[in-house]
Amino acid sequence: MARDVYADLRPRFVRYVAWGAIVVIVLGGLLVLWQAPGTDGRGYAPADALGTSVVLVAGCVFLWRQATVRARVDEHGVTVRNLLRVRTLEWTQVLAVRFGSGDPWVLLEISDGTTWPVMAVQRADGEYAVSEARRLAALVVRHGEGQEQDGSGPAV
């Protein structure tokens, strides 16, 4: 079955791990807050319970954000939603797609001389990530300023 060339790019491994960790944190936090006896069996003080809850919620928000990184592609460009920032680029702004063997995720070379990470395509996903990087590179060549290198296909 052919994959839609404009389907969102999303990581697999980190998404599954993050959602699983959220479940463990929520269940573990509830267990600790409701079942653990606290100091000398008197239960937790309200400030302790609140502090613990704030830390657990912050951890869950971080993991949720990690689980929802993505890159939306269409005929006009790519919108990259990373852990902390979102950036929309037109195809003409993207010069190349890099995914070297030591890179944890794809990097876009931008026409302003900078690079922009695409955490949606992560090395931890193995061959799936390589194929997604190639798909992104092909879109750059098709719609933008990206050039094929040595005639063998998009630079990845």
Gyration radius over CA: 21 Å
CATH architecture descriptor text of the largest domain: Roll
Order of helices and strands: HHEEEEEEH
Query: Approximately what portion of the residues adopt beta-strand conformation?
Result: 15-25%
* Main sheet: strands, sense, barrel: 3 strands, antiparallel
Q: Helical segment tally?
A: 3
- Broad shape: elongated
Number of strands: 6
- Could you give the distance between the termini? 23 Å
Mean pLDDT: 87
The structural domain count equals: 2
- Provide the helix percentage: 25-40%
Q: Pick out the low-confidence regions.
A: 148-154
In the CATH scheme, what's the topology name of the largest domain? Answer: PH-domain like
Helices and strands, with pairings:
Layout: H1 13-35, H2 46-67, E1 70-73, E2 77-81, E3 86-90, E4 94-98, E5 105-110, E6 115-122, H3 127-143
Antiparallel strand pairs: 1-2, 2-3, 4-5, 5-6
Helix pairs in contact: 1-2
Could you explain the architecture of this structure?
This protein is an alpha+beta fold and 156 residues long. It has two domains: 13-67; 70-143, PH-domain like. The chain contains three helices and six strands, in the order H-H-E-E-E-E-E-E-H. Helix 1 packs antiparallel against helix 2 (46-67). It is elongated, with a radius of gyration of 21 Å.
Summarize the structure.
The protein is of the alpha+beta class. The protein contains 3 helices and 6 strands.
Can you tag this structure with a few keywords?
PH domain-containing protein, 156 residues, 2 domains, disordered C terminus, transmembrane, 6 strands, CFP-6_PH, three-stranded antiparallel β-sheet, transmembrane helix, elongated, 3 helices
